[in-house]
Amino acid sequence: MTAIANPAPVQSAIEPHARAQFPLLQPTIGMPMLDLRSLASRQGCYAYDPGLGETGICRSSITYVDGERRILLYRGYPIDALVENCSFLEVAWLLTNGELPDAGQLAGFTRDITRHTMLNEQIHAIFRGFRRDAHPMAVMCGVVGALAAFYHDGLDIFDRRHRLVASHRLIAKMPTIAAMAYKYSLGQPFVYPRNDLGYAENLLAMLFSVPCEAFRLAPAAAKALEALLIIQADHEQNASTTAMRLVGSTRANPYACTAAAIAALWRPLHGGANEAVIETLKAIGTVERIPEMLRRAKDRTDPFRLMGFGHRVYKSYDPRAKVLRPLCQEIMASLGRSDDPLLRLALELERIALEDEYFIKRKLYPNVDFYSGLIFRALGLPASMFTPIFAVARTAGWLAHWNEMIADPETRICRPRQLYQGPAERPLVAIADRQPCPPLVG
Ligand code: CMC
Asked: What is the pTM of this model?
């Protein structure tokens, strides 16, 4: 009896199918999309698109990204205009409601958010169940997921009012949770939210104040954090937003969906890149070592990558990095840290990489995380807290997408197909007659 090996991957030539016509869906701006919903019934095949890079999974009116022309619009407004003129809560309202609020609406929204900033005291016990050295993103996944246990019964996700309250709770509580994760890691007492402060100011106060001393807020730090929160608030169908939509498509509880989105944001290919950028800069160490590390980044046999460079969509300078670059220099100057060796190294690395044939050919430019990491560091946060703050900002976008998805009559459970390349049906062999398995590869 011989073991049946897996068949070789099928690479059959593309059959010359009679081409069916598919409707072309027109966006407001950007590329049209073929409506392939009848592909299998009319063509007898499915579409193969690992990573979904060529596939639209929903209609959306929230954010528009044009990677070639460096455009990022929230509900039609350019990101730099929003950073220049709006507060984070104005932008959060814009994302979830579709229009900018007037003064009365903003005051009402601010009231709604501040009313929900505290956590149920029982949640403190959940924090205490984590190891002190747990990564704050792990703690946030757990605590935000646990909110589903507090707010589940009686929650009707098809009721707009219920969805709104859940959205307010999450936008309000995320800074509190992130700050508590930080305080817990330090062994310091949790700091309660201060509803007399702005959104970014309150977050800074919860992160950095201690009960035994007066807290002095640096206006430059609050301004920089507010800008970072706006810039990171949404980015259309990125991995974590897709996780939010995918889990949400099963009609899951929104707190559980947000925990899934936090998990997707965590690691270096997505939101965790801001943390990884600092590691990369530290690994490079000095300007003299840049050429050597660039050689490693270009070597396909070496897993080392230049974190903070490249993007699936942006094939030119990331418009978010364009806003953050001067902001980063401004905050460093106002905090008296213009001579930060990591900032100097980052600027030099960017200059050299942008002149390098490999990066030019592949259109690899600094992305949002290249500068956001440096700003977070200037604010005094350790690298492990960069992605939790990113999660605080992105919660507004996740919820805007979740609300849009639930209200969309075209929403179906997200259930992709696969190109199966495992064994065809085969008889089961009794254990005594089996051959040892060949070693697993990969
Ligand atoms: N350093 C060195 N080479 C790179 C890098 C990099 N940072 N990024 C891409 N490449 C190369 C890659 O090896 C490939 O080369 P080749 O064509 O010779 O095989 C080519 O560029 C295309 O890369 P890819 O991995 O196929 O592109 P992707 O669209 O699948 O991945 C990415 C996009 C962001 C995951 C990737 O550029 C990357 O790993 N960057 C570093 C991590 C990072 O900064 N992530 C944050 C993204 S922005 C925040 C957010 O929106 O989530």
From this structure: 0.90
